[in-house]
Specification:
5-stranded mixed sheet; alpha+beta; 4-stranded antiparallel sheet; extended
């Protein structure tokens, strides 16, 4: 199967009641529409997905803007697979990378945590004083990070939230990151497991802050001319992009080049001095590490391609602009969503089980048969209230790996054909005829005895040479000693 990078976006109507949005998959290079999953309208931070991977089909979920309903889709059907009625309307949600857990935040500051496969509501607690704006899992799924209208960022331990012995206790954050002064608008988790990863948080206070979770400390603050609504970080953490609602997108490089005192150039990281480290983006002194892209439309979503060569910008008018990161040149605009607002933007490899584009390598005749080859990630209806009995039963659907007769489906040079195996078995295992066996054994014994005799002769010659050398060295040393002794006596007389 040829790897093809695609764009996954979620759309929502610009005004309430003006139609319905959708999940849409586009080809990154051509901009053409590959698939559309209709009848969903999700606000920013209210959509999530996982890709098809490890023999399991991916899913997409979207919390609806005007009601407490969660729509579930998979790539094998272009219709809603499951509608889940939620305890209350969600303002944001998140899936961990394996889709084991789903977290949702509300306008009252509550956070819900469900297990996706069983639907069990593990925990629901008052996490913030005001609305929860954004939720993100770390890459290993160990921590849940929440940002709120109360300007606070809290880090929650998933193992503690699902621990049965702690269910009667009020959940407390592992730690809090409190340096913003206005509502937190976006969070981006860097690469690596907790606590070795770092995170970026943006706020309406015109700042983006870089945090180190290992030390629970602020590393650097970047101050922008306008409030920041969304951020995206490249996979190598060399730079990040921050967008403002007025349509300005700033590129901030986290490394700079300077002259070395002994000549030449050196590359060094910027920032990292802590709370007092403030970098003003837009000032003339920082122009070398900051570059500006002007979109002229309100920006609602950002994403970077898998190759980190393209920047994708989603706008409130439904446009998706693709920019070359090196030159900031606008390569193309996808205008298939006019009248809508882009609420989610991400890049991914084209799913092999995508409806209408089933990969030939799956050896299926239709999309209906794809689920037999690539089963979809199981999703159960979410509980609306906590049920201890369901936790005790805790029945979860799991997919076991398929065991093939051979580790490889196609013939290759490392395969061991059955006929060849039988011939080798006959040659090495079955006894040979008695006459030929006795003849070969006696000949082999004679060869070995002759070889032993040769080795003994060589050993005897080597030993003789060694003894002669030893005797010559000893005699030489004795004669030298006697000569020195005679010379000494003559000198005394």
């Amino acid at each position: 199967m040829v790897l093809q990078e695609t764009i996954l976006c979620a759309t929502a109507p610009q005004t309430s009641g003006s139609g319905q949005g959708a999940f849409v998959l586009h080809d990154l290079q051509a901009g053409t529409t590959l698939a559309t999953f209709r009848q969903t309208s999700s606000a920013p931070h209210c959509s999530a997905f996982i890709e098809t991977a490890n023999g399991q089909g991916g899913i997409m979920i979207g919390a609806q803007m005007d009601k407490s309903v969660l729509n579930v889709y998979n790539f094998q059907r272009d219709q809603i697979v499951l509608k889940i009625v939620l305890p209350e309307k969600l303002c944001c949600l998140a899936l961990d990378q394996s889709a084991n857990y789903c977290a949702g935040g509300t306008a009252q500051g509550r956070i819900y945590l469900w297990e996706v496969a069983s639907g069990i509501l593990y925990n629901a607690w008052d996490a913030h004083y005001r609305q929860v704006n954004v939720l993100k899992f770390t890459s290993d799924g160990i921590m849940l990070i929440s940002g709120s209208e109360d300007s606070g960022v809290s880090v929650w331990s998933i193992p503690k939230l699902v621990d049965d012995e702690l269910q009667n206790e009020l959940p407390l954050p592992q730690f809090t990151l409190s340096d913003h002064t206005l509502p937190v608008t976006d969070i981006f988790c860097g690469v690596g497991p907790f606590p070795k990863c770092r995170i970026l948080t943006s706020s309406s206070d015109h700042t983006v802050k870089l945090w180190d979770l290992a030390t629970q400390s602020l590393m650097t603050t970047f101050h922008f001319p306008k409030p920041i609504c969304c951020v995206v970080w490249d996979i190598s953490e060399r730079m990040f992009f921050a967008a403002s609602p007025d349509g300005s997108v700033h590129q901030v490089n986290l490394f700079r080049e300077r002259d070395h005192k002994h000549g030449g150039k050196v590359i060094e990281a910027i920032g990292g001095a802590g709370t007092a480290d403030l970098i003003r983006v837009g000032d003339s002194e920082s122009a070398a590490k900051t570059r500006l892209i002007t979109v002229d439309q309100p920006v609602t979503a950002l994403s970077i391609s898998i190759t980190t060569s393209l920047l994708l910008v989603g706008t409130a008018t439904g446009l998706i602009n693709v920019y070359d990161i090196a030159s900031h040149q606008l390569l193309r605009s996808i205008s298939a969503h006019k009248g809508m607002s882009i609420t989610l933007l991400a890049t991914m490899l084209k799913p092999p089980d995508l409806v209408g584009h089933i990969s030939l390598s799956l050896n299926v005749a239709s999309s209906a048969e794809a689920k037999d080859v690539i089963p979809v990630k199981p999703v159960a209806p979410f509980q609306r209230m906590r049920d201890p009995r369901a936790r005790e039963a805790h029945e979860v659907t799991m997919m076991l790996p398929v065991q093939d007769k051979t580790p490889y489906n196609n013939a290759a040079e490392y395969d061991y054909p059955e006929a060849e195996f039988q011939n080798d078995y006959t040659f090495f295992v079955r006894p040979m005829e008695q006459g030929s066996s006795g003849f070969s054994s006696s000949a082999r014994v004679a060869e070995l005895e002759e070889e032993v005799q040769q080795l003994r002769e060589q050993l005897s010659r080597a030993k003789g040479v060694n003894d002669a050398m030893w005797e010559a060295v000893v005699q030489k040393l004795l004669s030298q000693g006697k000569q020195k002794e005679l010379v000494g006596r003559d000198a005394r007389y």
